TrEMBL record:
One of its GO terms (molecular function) is kinase activity. Keywords: Kinase, Transferase. The keyword Transferase applies. It comes from Molossus molossus (Pallas' mastiff bat). It comes from the Eukaryota. This is Ketohexokinase.
């Protein structure tokens, strides 16, 4: 899904791009690869 939004945004002027936020709540290695796709990104710390 995030890759499709990235492709869409590549063809749009800035005012029509979809903004994406990515939040990773659990620190698992496979989830951190998602952080490169967000305009706003947040990774929670371990408790």
């Amino acid at each position: 899904m995030l890759q499709r939004i990235e492709q869409h945004n590549a063809r749009q002027p800035p005012e029509q791009k979809i903004r994406v936020s990515v939040e990773v709540e659990k620190p698992r290695e496979e989830l951190f690869q998602l952080l490169g796709y967000g305009d706003v990104e947040r990774a929670c710390r371990r408790h």
